[in-house]
Amino acid sequence: MILIPVKNLRNAKQRLAPVLDQSSRTELARAMLADVLQSVAEYPDAKVSLVTSDSYALELAAAYRFEVIRDDKNLGESDAIHMATEFSMAAGASYTLVIPADVPLLEADDLRAIDESAPATGSVVVPSRDRRGTNAILRRPAALFPLRFGNDSFVPHLGAAIASLTSAVVLSLPRLALDIDTAEDLEELVRAPGEKRAQHLARRLGFSGAANPGTFLSFGQAETRPAAAKNG
Fold it and tell me: How many C-beta atoms lie closer than 10 Å to residue 171's C-beta?
């Protein structure tokens, strides 16, 4: 089960407030979500649930015929994913793959790379480009360990994966590594190859990406972290 948490997009992307007004931030968040959902929809046989109560996200879920796990209490991201994980397990899901809604360069090939790297029992952790955040995480079984999202979630997630005494794969995927929180991220988005909705919007909003060329043409790489040794 692919889980995509979506908070209230009308108040989205507060960290971009120094460079974008709220109307533009909402438009950007909606464009990024549309990009993510289109790529997920292009991945064959993907079973997808949006974890949300946002009206725009609900409209897109209906358009793509994705399931919705309602987050009417507007939970924090970690609590929302915990709730959605329990819901998915009750529905018989053997794994969960959490994908954020602000990774607009995502392609179906990135989902395929995660699936192909996933161990029979264990996890795949995709770090953000600064290797501080977690931009995707697969767990098999679905609740193998709790998730704690935030700006510095990668190391704790990897530690929890290793402590689960199962195979833990760290997979670097350049497109998926870019989440959009700062003006620098928007410049990087514009520099990257592609014609995503969010890229067109970022250009229209005045981000040129003229300096510091990016490196999005590199291939994803995976490394497997062995399970931690049992004590005694």
Answer: 24
Say how many C-beta atoms besides its own lie within 10 A of residue 19's C-beta: 14
Would you say 31 and 104 are in contact if contact means Cβ atoms under 8 Å apart? yes
Asked if the structure places residue 23 within a domain, the reply is: yes
What CATH number is given to the structural domain containing 109?
Answer: 3.90.550.10
Structure tokens at 187: 């410049």
Convert the pLDDT of each residue in 49-96 to its tens digit.
999 999 999 999 999 999 999 999 989 999 999 999 999 999 999 999
- The amino acid that residue 76 corresponds to is G
* In a domain? residue 232: no
Tell me if 92 sits within 8 A of 141, measured CB to CB: no
Tokens standing for residue 215: 């490196």
Q: Tokens 């994913």, residue?
A: 81
| Residue 82, C-beta contacts closer than 8 angstroms, at least 6 positions apart | 146, 147
> Which residues fall within 8 angstroms of residue 212, CB to CB, at 6 or more apart?
187, 191
pLDDT per residue as tens digits for the range 155-199: 999 999 999 999 999 999 999 999 999 999 999 999 999 999 999
CA distance 218 to 127: 15
